[in-house]
Each structure stands twice: as structure tokens, then as C-alpha cells.
Design goal:
Elements: E1 14-25, E2 30-36, E3 42-44, E4 48-52, E5 57-60, E6 65-68, H1 76-88, E7 94-96, H2 98-108
Parallel strand pairs: 1-6
Antiparallel strand pairs: 1-2, 1-7, 2-3, 4-5, 5-6
Length: about 110
């Protein structure tokens, strides 16, 4: 399966992700990992710098804004891209922090 870079932020300022998760690397960077809504390809973001847990929208180091849609999951196409990204970036371990972040959002605004 080929891997390619996403278009520049000036061409694609926003991405909507389905079947998503937020993963934290061993050095503490957090990344959106999911399926791009437009073409169903796997996607790994640059480092997340802001994340609104209520609107499920975040901005990454590149300046791109990600909109998270639906429930979290780990689809195989996104998992494959994540594994490749980890090899290229010498990431040896990571933690799925998705549920933790969503739980914090519920604590911030109880129903």
C-alpha cells in the first residue's frame, strides 16, 4: 500500500476524519489517526497543538484543522499508515489516549 503526503495546508486547510483515535508517542506528541472522509485513505496528522474535546476539532503544528466525526475506532488503513509513520519517525511506543480525552470532556461538562 503506497504512502503519500497530504496536500499543503494552503490547498487543504481542513480534514474530516472518520474512524479515528488520538495517539500519544513516547516523547509526548499527540496525533490524530483516522480515515480521511473524502477518499477513505488512512491519515496521520502532525503534532496536535490544540484540541477542543467538546466540538471534536483540533489544530496541528502544520496549521491544518481536523474535524473528528463519529465514534473512535482503529481501522486497518489508518493503523497501517500510523505504523509506517512510526518507523520513519523512530517512534518505538505509543499510547491510545482517545478514551481518556473523551472522559475528561464529560467531566468538564456533565449532562
Amino acid at each position: 500500500m503506497p504512502i503519500w503526503k497530504i496536500a499543503p495546508v494552503s490547498d487543504e486547510p481542513g480534514v474530516s476524519l472518520l474512524q479515528w483515535s488520538i495517539l500519544e508517542t513516547d516523547d509526548g506528541t499527540r496525533h490524530f489517526v483516522g480515515t480521511d472522509e473524502r477518499d477513505s485513505t488512512g491519515c496521520v496528522s502532525s503534532e496536535v497543538v490544540t484540541f477542543d474535546r467538546l466540538t471534536l476539532q483540533g489544530e496541528t503544528q502544520s496549521g491544518r484543522v481536523y474535524q473528528i466525526i463519529g465514534q473512535p475506532s482503529r481501522p486497518s488503513n489508518a493503523e497501517y499508515v500510523w505504523e509506517c509513520w512510526c518507523r520513519v519517525n523512530s517512534v518505538t511506543s505509543h499510547t491510545d489516549i482517545t478514551r481518556q480525552l473523551l472522559a475528561e470532556a464529560e467531566d468538564d461538562h456533565p449532562i
